[in-house]
Amino acid sequence: MADERYDAMVIGTSQGGRFLPGDLAEAGKRVALVERGNLGGVCVNVGCTPTKTMVASARLAHQARRGAEYGVRTGPVSVDLAAVRERKRAMVTGARENYVSRLEKEGLDVIQGEARFTGPKTVEIALREGGKRGVTAPVIVIDTGARPRPPALSGAQNVPILDSTSIMELDTLPEHLLILGGGYIGLEFGQMFRRFGSEVTIVQTGPRPLMREDDDVSDEVAAILREDGVTVLTSATPDHVEEAHGGGVRLTVRTPDGERQVEGTHLLSAVGRIANTEALALPAAGIRVLDNGFIEVDEYLETSVPGVYAMGDVKSGPAFTHLSYDDYRILHANLLGGEKTSTRDRVVPYTVFIDPQLGRVGMTEREAREQKRSIRVAKLPMNGVIRALEAGETRGFMKAVVDAETQQILGAAMLGMEGGEIMTIVQVAMLGKLPYAAMADAIFTHPLLAEGLNSLFASLDA
Ligand SMILES: Cc1cc2nc3c(=O)[nH]c(=O)nc-3n(C[C@H](O)[C@H](O)[C@H](O)COP(=O)(O)OP(=O)(O)OC[C@H]3O[C@@H](n4cnc5c(N)ncnc54)[C@H](O)[C@@H]3O)c2cc1C
């Protein structure tokens, strides 16, 4: 089989990667885009889009139950999970169609199949409709993402275990959902299903959920979830799982106080993600992977093989759609003759879509102290923000870390109503290298949540 020659090949479709093949094609290159699953990748099909669609249903159920607090009469609230799933499916279908329509470009061949390297610049594609195709290109971009990590748990093979994809396809509500993992995926699903009406227990190995955050932030997140009726077990390491008498699952966990058992009707594993690299047969191309299985890249996203790049989750580091998109920007500039850019000094924001949201950018207080920086920390409870009081959403706090010498903002954690949006305002100030006083003194519209930033930063001068 002679290899078909292209100018460039992208393996995997994603939100970040969707523009690159088209841009290369528009620049006159012949491009192959290979996808083994649904076009659009994780974000559109089984990640951001469906989860945030379902989070919206969960929030509405929660707010409807709070109607009386606002003087609004509602009847008993219950959730039709099949209808929630229909809404989610419609949203995903729409997003995917929009995605696919952008791939119709002259010079861009979309090939549905699984790619496997047979040499540094050659790939064999096992076609979805059967048969194989050999492709070669001087520039190859690997954008194959990651998938749920199976839990390291004895007995796991004997019980049904949901992951972040299959849980969104349930059409009846779990009576009691056990969740392994207190990272953002576990927390988003935990609060969501509690609001749908399930009993929920989150089992977290570490002493707090969201272990990368400052202790006060993750403690407050745990308190919020507990207030919502979610059981959050911390310092609890799952050891074994088996079928419970009468159906469901029984989980054995190790805690500092000894072993204990937790029973539920359903089990969701949200213990992290592993890189989609095995099918690629990377050793055949000489592409190095790190000990954690993710692809090694330099700051220009180039792998150990010149001309082969990796973008998105398949390389090590934070895994978000907006980072995959920024990887695209870097590759676009570097492959299409723009000013050379790199991943150096990138500020990576993220938002945990629990309610209230946790918006995060830059350093945590812990990181700043570990770096022995001279810092000042500002904190403002959301019940000190007029807009939050008016809206009846006063849970959480705003927190910012400021460099005591330069007066610049090093990081922020906005745990509160629209925390992601408020964090973004701070992020923009950080990008513009504004001193914190600019946030303290800015005129923000009354009564916006942003006004809280005046108070937050002014508190450093109090
Ligand atoms: C439940 C959940 C919620 C999330 N929510 C958010 C959020 O709110 N915000 C956010 O920023 N991020 C979120 N993420 C993360 C986000 O989805 C990912 O960071 C993003 O999709 C990464 O994109 P990517 O470029 O790595 O490619 P991916 O989207 O992972 O796509 C990779 C594609 O490559 C294909 N592929 C793999 N191997 C091969 C092969 N050998 N041959 C051909 N094709 C192959 C796969 O089928 C897949 O379609 C969420 C993820 C999950 C699971």
Which features does this protein show?
12 helices; binds flavin-adenine dinucleotide; 22 strands; 462 residues; globular; eight-stranded mixed sheet; alpha/beta
Strand content: 25-35%
Query: From the structure provided, what is the oligomeric state, counting identical versus distinct chains?
Result: single chain
**Spatial strand sequence of the major β-sheet:** 1-6-5-4-3-2-7-17
User: What is the residue-mean pLDDT, rounded to a whole number?
Assistant: 96
Instruction: Summarize the biggest pleated sheet.
Output: 8 strands, mixed
Associated small molecules:
flavin-adenine dinucleotide
Helix content: 25-40%
- CA(first)-CA(last) distance: 74 Å
What is the rounded Rg? 24 Å
Structural class, by secondary structure, is alpha/beta
Given the C-alpha coordinates, what overall shape results?
A: globular
Stretches where pLDDT falls below 50 for ≥5 residues? none
Beta-strand segment tally: 22
- Determine the number of helices (DSSP H or I, runs of at least 4 residues): 12
Helices and strands in order:
Layout: E1 4-5, E2 8-11, H1 19-26, E3 31-35, H2 41-46, H3 48-65, H4 81-101, E4 108-119, E5 122-127, E6 132-136, E7 139-142, E8 146-148, E9 176-180, H5 184-196, E10 199-203, H6 215-227, E11 231-233, E12 237-243, E13 249-255, E14 258-264, E15 266-269, E16 273-275, E17 308-310, H7 321-335, E18 350-352, E19 357-362, H8 365-370, E20 375-381, H9 386-391, E21 397-403, E22 409-416, H10 419-431, H11 436-441, H12 451-458
Parallel strand pairs: 1-6, 2-3, 2-7, 3-4, 7-17, 9-10, 9-15, 10-11
Antiparallel strand pairs: 4-5, 5-6, 8-16, 12-13, 13-14, 18-19, 19-22, 20-21, 21-22
Helix pairs in contact: 1-7, 3-4, 3-5
Bound molecules: flavin-adenine dinucleotide.
